[in-house]
Amino acid sequence: MSIGTFTVRALDPLKDAELLHRWVTDPKAAFWMMQDAKLQDVEREYMRIAAHEHHHAYLGLHDGEPAFLMEKYDPRYVELVGLYEPEPGDVGMHFLVAPTDRPISGFTRAVITAVMDELFADPSTRRVVVEPDVGNKAVHALNEAVGFVPDREIDKPEKRALLSFCTRDQFLSARGVVV
Fold it and tell me: pTM of the prediction?
């Protein structure tokens, strides 16, 4: 059974701010750490990202409708500076699935798979790096399902995180593609 078609487009920090504000302040987005954000806070944060040379935000669409947020960053300059030794081709990633009152079985896994497909569509991407909160067991399971291997816990200013990596071959293998 197909869940549908996923695409991404560049996020427009002003046009998309209201939508993002609803998503990041939803109780299910607690690990996004923006629960108390005002609309202007969300606009400011995504304007900052839009202006950053090494950090990009995208709106993910499911059958043409907004359904998830994807961030891509260069860990040499953003998020993980000084916390691990980056390798050539490393790309950092965050993703957030929009809250819904009509959940679709397997949807979140399909989203993370679409995010990974998007990141690995760039031939220069050799490995995806994530650093979710150590307490976010649901995302750890999703990450492992698409090929991430936990490396170690690290202390970031805002959280204790589980540093994990996924190579192109690990991702393809997790999808059942012979590599």
Answer: 0.93
